[in-house]
Amino acid sequence: MSIWWSLHLRREAASVPLARRLLLGTMETAGVDPDVCFDLSIALSEACANAVEHGGDTAQGGSSEAYRVTAYLDGETCRIEVADSGPGFPSGTALPAGADLPSGRVTRAPLRPSPARSDAEHGRGLCLIQELADHVQIGNKPGRGGAVVSFDKILKWKKDAPLVAV
Known about the structure:
Elements: E1 2-10, H1 15-30, H2 34-54, E2 66-74, E3 77-83, H3 125-132, E4 135-140, E5 147-154
Antiparallel strand pairs: 1-2, 2-3, 3-5, 4-5
Helix pairs in contact: 1-2, 2-3
């Protein structure tokens, strides 16, 4: 079984629950375990919220009014990518060389976010994504700029799931 979809969304708060509901509906229809659905929907919400909040001002001085969400349910894995056209992540916070990169789409080693204080109102999203997903890649897009956050998780299935991978 293989399902994928891609959304081009406006950088508005209302786009976050739209993306989350589409992901949840896809996974529930396919028969993915509810706990996995919940984890991935929270991680997606955090990545989308970051794109809405931080993905606007480009390096050229303009602004981007959209971001992209792509989800792949392929075999036993769900992979999600959120990409914006903002300034990207600041330099100097990269992981050592040799870290995994998503298909050449990131221009340097992925970033490792530092944990926020437990009482902080902002700054916990990327760490939360890392806790909820099995594999996370964070970096900048080549060319026109922007950030890319991609993550995947091994799927568990409900008994008698209609679209379980064979």
